Amino acid sequence: DAVPLSHDSSDHSLSEELSSLRTDNMSLKDDLQALKAELSNVKGTDERVVLLEKERSLLESSLKELELKLSASQEDVTKLSTLKSECKNLWEKVESLQALLDKATKQADQAISVLQQNQELRMIAYRR
């Protein structure tokens, strides 16, 4: 019972093709696993991007708040500068008024002294 050569050859050819398909199948399985791992990495990256976007949004809000506080602080500094200038001007006026008061007090003291001398002279003249 000799098997025809072409039948043996056909079996051998099918066996090689089956072996080749198995090799391709294993390669495709490996590729599929690699793609699944990459997809998982991409999903993880997407989640990190979402978290980073939320963090960026929070940081932008914080920055806006700080900018508003800075603006308010700058306005306060301007007001303080104005108040300091007004205070200096008022202090100069107080010093000027104090000098005028000192001068008026001195003149009043001199007038009192003259009046006292005048009264003493009248008393002396009246006694004579």
From TrEMBL:
Residues 1-22 are annotated as: Disordered. This is Putative starch synthase.
